[in-house]
Amino acid sequence: MRVGIPVAFLDHGKVAEVRTEVGFTAQDIGRRIVEWTAQVERADADRLDSEAVDRMTTD
Amino acid sequence: MSTLRQTGGVSGYPSRAESPHDWIENSHASTALSYADGLSKAIRDPGERRTVVAIVGDGALTGGMCWEALNNISVAQLPVVIVVNDNGRSYAPTIGAFAQHLARAPAAPGIRARARQREAQPPSGAGRGAAFLRGAARYEARHEGHAAPQGMFEDLGLKYVGPVDGHDVAAVEHALRLARGFNGPVIVHAVTRKGYGYPPAENDQTDQMHQSRGFDPATGSADGDRGPDLTGVFSDELLRIADTRDDVVAITAAMCEPTGLGPFARRYPDRFYDVGIAEQHAVTSAAGMATGGLHPVVAIYATFLNRAFDQVLLDVALHRLPVTFVLDRAGLTGDDGPSHNGMWDLAILGVVPGLRIAAPRDETTLRMALDEAIEDDAGPTVVRFPKTPLGHDLPPIRQIGGVDVLAEPDVDASVDVLVVSIGPLAYEVLDAAARVREAGFTVRVVDPRWVKPIPVSWRIWRGPPVWSCTVEDGVVASGVGARVAQALRVSGIDIPNS
């Protein structure tokens, strides 16, 4: 996963406020990593299930 | 004004959303005349006379774009009024031959009157100022009519009005009406004083409070102390290196103090070059110096290096010249708005062959990166960092393949998530990693310090971890994360990264 600044022209404000605006705080970064990891984990589980079903069907 | 440069408040620069008179919104200097050239061509209508007015500072006139624009404006002969706000400064006093040329203008009557007044009643402790005014008056008397700047402008096909006292509203209005009457390109030379009317600003020798933040209006004293920052660390380390290597020279584009080059300039004035607001020239001039055997350090805000991309790519990198670019204000800069955010550099410099980029996270790694960069004589290097208060050092727990490990689970535990942190974001990333751990995942946080080229041979990429994540204070597209993903694919390392 890539976490960075959105490709956009960002309005002026205090750095901390701009970071909050674009979801670039420690809290945001942590949440995004957890959500993404869980998402990939689910996708992997689904893929493994699908492959198991395919094998059973083929057998 | 109480909302200036604050979220939802007034912009520090022209903003079309704020005023119908703000036709452009940008803070990068020297662009106004090109906009005016284009606008005058777009609205050209024989049936209706419309005049385009552009205001440009004498500092901005040190930028090449202004001269490219004047070259075209003078040929087009369309009604463009160019007001030169000549206060003799950008941040610092304007340098170069053109500034000297403008300074030869015979003073406008109002300015002369004030000068005479000051000469008659010099303020206490200002003897040098009075001497300067007397000298200026003698020079004026000798050269009036011979060395005035109108000659140069008129040679370019531009009418010249002035100099006019830029603080005299009636005089400025008269000059503008006169200029509009020419129905062609005209220079209105308005002489002003930066900070005029507010003694704390007028008396601020560094930059006339150009960089003012919160301050007490009665005294001009800044609110609080910002404390040490990475700019100061760079300044100190460069001086240390310069003491041992006389081939190291420093270049600024009119921002000596803000980029931390002030101490260098004072100790080594013959090895310091302020080229004016001329980033393109700064880079190619550095290329010339490197060709001649020097090691130039070009200190510049990250956002301003955007202007010299072609010079970095072809004049420096193609020639594999040892030039070190030190990019201050990298990442989000906040209150200066969209044009000042230093968030593009990692993406655009990522495509420059042979260019190495360091993103130090703290004082120790900045000193190391600068030493390594200036030690590198094989090609160009970049050291980039943001303008943030100096945090405590983040020493690595250990290194894997030359990459700093900042946090990891117990040695025997497997790693679920590898987080690659770039620069001083490490403080936030370590905080974020703690949150990821709380969610039940094991995390390793690493900092490569050098982000280009991507160290594909990192042993850290082999085997566990299961997932990887990059965190960078640059645009997410085409940045370090994108290069990591590409490097992993090319190396056949199967770690989900995007």
Notes on the structure:
The complex is a heterodimer of chains A (59) and B (498). Chain A contains two helices and one strand. With 59 residues, chain A is mainly α. The longest helix of chain A has 33 residues, at 26-58. Chain B has 498 residues and is of the alpha/beta class. Chain B folds into three domains: 32-194, Rossmann fold (3-Layer(aba) Sandwich); 230-384, Rossmann fold (3-Layer(aba) Sandwich); 398-491, Rossmann fold, CATH 3.40.50. Chain B has 17 helices and 16 strands. In chain B, the strands form three sheets. Chain B has a seven-stranded mixed beta sheet, with helices on both faces. In chain B, strands 11-12-14-13-16 form a five-stranded mixed beta sheet, with helices on both faces. In chain B, strands 1-2-4-3 form a four-stranded parallel beta sheet, with helices on both faces. In chain B, α7 links the parallel β3 (159-165) and β4. In chain B, α1 (32-42) packs parallel to α2, α4 crosses α5 (127-143) and α11 (279-291) packs parallel to α13 (309-317). The radius of gyration of chain B is 26 Å and the shape is elongated. The two termini of chain B are 44 Å apart. At the A-B interface, β1, α1 and α2 of A face α16, β16 and α17 of B. β1 of chain A pairs parallel with β16 of chain B.
Gist of the model:
The complex is a heterodimer of chains A (59) and B (498). With 59 residues, chain A is mainly alpha-helical.
